[in-house]
Amino acid sequence: MMALNRHRLKHLASQGALGAKTTQLLLTHTDRLLSVILIGNNLLNTIIPVLTTSIALHTFGQNNMVLSISTGIVAFLIIVFAEITPKIVGATFPEKIALPASLLIAPMMRVARPLVWFVNLFANGTLRLLHINTKGGRDQRLSTEELRSIVLESGSFMPTKHRSILLNLFDLENISVDDVMIPRRRIEALDFDAPFDQILHQLETCYHNKLIVYQGRHRPCARRAARAQDALGAA
User: Measuring CA to CA, how many Å separate 3 from each of 6, 38, 88, 99, 147?
Assistant: First the structure.
């Protein structure tokens, strides 16, 4: 559950995904959530060896070899099937595991609230003695580089053009006007002192639907531009 992408979870909750809103609510109380999970996990890990030892004693009596073998087998099974394997599966498929599991954990938190409060009372007291502030670490904002990494890792979920636009937005503060201005010699414009056929050819082959027009040095000529446009439309 802790491996969930919070932004993805927020999106799923807005879409009404099953368990997403419950998971969001659980993650707002991380201390209670961890307490319930750890209490349940440790209770099971403690009860299973005790039951196994009791069964071995009842069946085989005070046989040290049998007790050692049974304890080793139970420890191995707990490590593989109760610790390593579930954690790997949960980290690999956080959404598929966390969202359904939240529907079971939520009622468990309500039932175990007195026990959780009692345990957290000592845990929070220990944190205060160590001068550890857990509230300050909850409000974490993404830096520019982290946002850039998210965009780069979007892969096939985002078109290349859109990804390029977003990446360029991160560089806006480092861009000056000179970087985005088009040099004057590269600006496409219509010279009305040129032959009329050349003007028509330029209008037919240009890549823009609007062009700067000039005649002489700076004086624009709107009337002749309109004539050229009308002639191009008639052609």
Answer: 9, 16, 11, 12, 18
Rounded to whole angstroms, the Cα distance separating 78 from 172 reads 54
pTM higher than 0.70, yes or no?
Answer: no
Q: Which amino acid is at 130?
A: L
For residues 99 and 173, state if they share a domain. Answer: no
Please state the φ and ψ torsions of residue 213, each to the nearest 5 degrees: -120, 145
Q: How far apart are CA 206 and CA 210, in angstroms?
A: 9
Other Cβ atoms less than 10 A from the Cβ of 116: the count is: 22
72-95 pLDDT, tens digit each: 888 898 888 888 898 888 888 888
Token digits for 190? 């219509």
Over the stretch 31-54, which tens digit does the pLDDT of each residue have?
A: 888 888 888 888 888 888 888 888
Token look-up 């087998």 returns: 73
Provide the domain limits for residue 168: 153-180
Place of tokens 């610790």: 83
Residues 6+ apart with CB under 8 A from 60: 66, 67
Q: Which two tokens stand for residue 130?
A: 């160590």
Does residue 1 form part of some domain? Answer: no
